[in-house]
Write a structure and sequence with these properties.
- The protein is an alpha+beta fold.
- The chain has one domain.
- The chain has four helices and two strands; from the N terminus they run H-H-H-H-E-E.
Length: 77
């Protein structure tokens, strides 16, 4: 049973390394969310177009509430 569970988990791990999605998704989000749209300038768009994922890490309990954003982009050409 444990072996079957392990086999079922492996593709999920691979998806984390190679996320699939909509091209330009995050640029579209940033441009269409009222809170963010005024912050995106024309020179930001070519960079945001290559943004693939955003990961949020919250501070551990017992500490002041903080967060870290990890921006994952496509590889350089």
């Amino acid at each position: 049973m444990k072996e079957k569970a392990k086999l079922e988990e492996e593709p999920k791990d691979q998806e984390k390394d190679d996320p699939k999605g909509i091209p330009g998704f995050w640029l579209t989000v940033f441009k269409n969310v009222d809170l963010l749209s005024n912050m995106v300038q024309e020179h930001d768009e070519p960079i945001l177009k290559h943004l693939k994922d955003i990961k949020v890490t919250l501070s551990e309990g017992g500490q002041p509430v903080t967060f870290t954003l990890e921006l994952h982009c496509e590889s350089n050409e």
